[in-house]
Amino acid sequence: MCSDLAVRVRGLNKCYHVYDKPHHRLLQMLTGKGRRFFREFWALKDIDLDIRKGETVGIIGCNGSGKSTLLQMICGTLTPTSGELQVNGRVAALLELGAGFNPEFSGRENVYLAASLYGLSPAQIDERFHAIAEFADIGEFLEQPVKTYSSGMYVRLAFAVVAHVDADILVVDEALSVGDAFFTQKCMRFIRTFCQTKSLIFVSHDSSSIISLCDRVLWLDRGEQRQTGPAKEVCEQYLNALFGALSEQPVDAQPQRKHIARLGQPELVWKDQRTDLVNASAFRNDLQVLRFAPDEAAFGGEQARVSSVVLTDSQGANLAWVVGGEQVTLSVVVDVACDLARPIVGFFVKDRLGQTLFGDNTYFSYQHQPLSAPAGSQLTARFEFYMPWLAKGDYVVQVAVAEGSQHEHRQLHWLHEALVIRSHHDPVATGIIGIPLSAISLSVA
């Protein structure tokens, strides 16, 4: 096996014997190869794959395509029927929920159990236990049996273990879909750092997260290797095939009528003409704004510290609930501890996978007449915008204060999760966010 390869797969096959009746297993044992009482199900057929060290590879495919089977063989929990599989390095995996945990053991006991299975000695686990417990952040539940845990707590503890076992290859199979926004962001920061030097195998039905994280993608279809190549190219082909199959399904034909379906003209250019209609329906984009979290993941804060982050309406009232399309103001207050010649305050809005959706900062507004801030003063930055429609899920608002210019600056304080925005309804037709459209028309000639 080449020294720069983390995983090498050649002609890999996995076959299961499917018995229609329980007693057929006994009959098969008694008759041997003389007669078959089973049907063969080939979960994987002739798979070839190379994963280099430091490479991130995604695996996509519909349910039942063989993704989890391939991962379990790479992790060593399944044996191939035939073919060659070589793994170079320690593999840490997040597969099905709670895998590797004993439900009767406490969280502490399961940390020692799981870490020992990855090859760590008791002394090494002792050294890392505090860091594991801090990463999981489940408090007193660490001493309770894991059978009492919620699905989110399972994932917290499992990911905390795999993040501290010095793995060379990390395998993630849809496990982060059950975590809360704060923890998911923490995991994504770890994964992106991990990917800089080590190998990641990532399985997800979310093509946008695959494209964001992965260098290459393996597309499996009914156990067969359909395509392997650059992430964007393969994901596009996969979606084309998926939606092409759906488009072939019959639909109820409706008689065509010559008309133009067009709503009234918007009152202002920035108001989507569908806003009133959407807000009066079940598709209204209700966005819950959770608390300001200054004690969550952050760095800096000695020379300047963000002391308040709030969303307000056009009258300045704090908002705990926003409807997509409404005008809002993001206000960021910074306490200044030393003289700042060219302060910059900015924000990003990111989805649960850490992908930046939109954001801005104050630099360009004051680049020609910099606004200085003396020690002991207070900076207040306000960003006025119309809240886009957000697909259902959790989003975080990152806030930072820096000094310098757009391209050359030093970060003074950065909050990874200053606010959490939870979208409860999904009005977005396509993509991650929706933007106001001045007009939509449909005509038949």
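(ticket continues) Second input and output from the same batch:
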Amino acid sequence: MALAKIIKYEGDNETFVWKSPIEDFNTMSQLIVHQSQEAVFFKNGQALDLFEAGRYTLDTQNIPLIRRFLNLPTGMKTPFHCEVYFINKAQQMAIKWGTDSQVQYMEPTYKFPLQIGASGEMSLSVRDSRRLLVKLIGTETGLTQNGLVAQFRSFLMSKIKPYIAHTMQNATYSIFEVDAHMDEFSESLKVALTPDFLEYGISLDQFFVTTIAKPDGETAYEKFKDIYIRQYSDIAAAQIQQKVDIIEQETEARKLVIESEAIAKKRTQEGYTYQQERGFDVAEKVAENEAVGEFTNMGVGLGTMAGVGGAVGGMVGGMMNDAVGQSISPNYNNVQDNSLEAFKIKLEKLKIMKDSGLISDEEFNVEKQKLLSSL
């Protein structure tokens, strides 16, 4: 019987598990395990000794489980029967996955039944060689990346669909915002799937959702989309209108400031103050009042102007008051200050000054009291 000398595997990196065709070898054979590999000895379907990266001379000293199993004496050169599986522990990347149908879930805000599909890529590596061999291999001679995906397809679909529904129902983002939260969505699914893969000795190193299939054209989805768009468009329109209103108010306020500055500059150039301008307005208003007579209006108006219009106003007002007084009565200069006619004229002047804002209510009452006291 031919005795094997070297047992090793140098195949492609897409193979997870490879069974050596050499099953009969003696205790002096060489076992070579490369980096990112492990070798597991099987006997009668039982996983026995495990070898990590390195070069091993197979004898009864470094395969103790087989020694006990076969009860081989030390130094025995006769061949014995044993199966050797090589496990590639390197990370297998770009393994594609996808839901075979859309997943239905209940939208949490408006309680719409929605459907969503997803696909992407994942990266896997072997975490527990013995567990993988016992759970998946059985009597198979190997396991490739495609073979693993085929074996895991139904398993993955049974797990990932409820995880997608649960994630979407509890997410802080809606189906219309999921594209912007793809990393968060992917991580949630990875966390949920990791324990399931570990049950088979597989580590789920990376898990990416790259495509989201939305149910465009479906009645509930289109209705929900319309509500969503109108909600945010109405808010956006209100915010824009608010900004426009603020701009218009600021514009009007600025116009008032500019107009006020122009009026103030005009007063400065023409040599009068705001109070003097108000006095001129009062005089004009009194002059237009036809209820008390033409001469009385002129006397009161110009008399008031005498108090607010400066020296010139006082001079003109005084002359007109004299003229008005003489026109009312030939003996005007002899009328006593406490006469009823004089009281009416002065009281009317005070009232016009108060209404025009030239004197306060308190000042008006004080002066009125003085007039009443003089009667």
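Agent notes: Confidence is low (pLDDT under 50) at residues 71-78, 290-338. The longest strand covers residues 113-126. Closing as not reproducible unless the customer responds.
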